[in-house]
Amino acid sequence: MSRDPYTYVTVSIDSDEAPRVGISFYTPGLRVTSGVLDSGRPFLDIRSKTADVSISTTGAGAVTSTDLEIARQLFNAAASYLADCERLHHQHSSGSGSAALPGDQAAA
Hints:
Elements: E1 6-12, E2 20-26, E3 31-36, E4 42-47, E5 52-56, H1 65-93, E6 100-101, E7 105-106
Antiparallel strand pairs: 1-2, 3-4, 4-5, 6-7
């Protein structure tokens, strides 16, 4: 089953907790950029026509050891996502029938 590309945004507000925003991109219309602002602050932006996500350092200040750990987690997650996309694309392109899910779980 094929679906049209879309971006899904949710906002959850509970009176006892801080509001929570969720953004899910299901579109090839993404632009991912990174750089360092003139102020010396690094950033990572993920943008579509309908939503933007910007990631930068704690409190928009100097890079902390926690910021470095988060950047490593982003890097590792992006590398894993790339590997899964390449593997699944190869399986689909070679007509191997069933696509495996991350962790080699069979698709339902």
